[in-house]
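pasting for ref
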Amino acid sequence: MRLDKFLKISRIIKRRSVAKEVADKGRIQINGKVAKSSSSVKIGDQLQIQFGNRIVIYEIRELHESTKKEDAAQMYTLISDEKQASED
């Protein structure tokens, strides 16, 4: 499954166009490698996403073509959510 589609379906990022933009700016890594929106994801992959000064790491548990809102959180496990120290 494409990275941007996974982010939308799992509701980590609400819109696919936003997921594509974030990925294409180099803010997402899959298993430690910078990923593009068209990169393929599979079960067991770790996603590291930079949201401003936060770095969030998820592990993919399930892949679905579509999902209900209440089932979306089962597609991944939150591993870490850390704020980066701001550089003054």
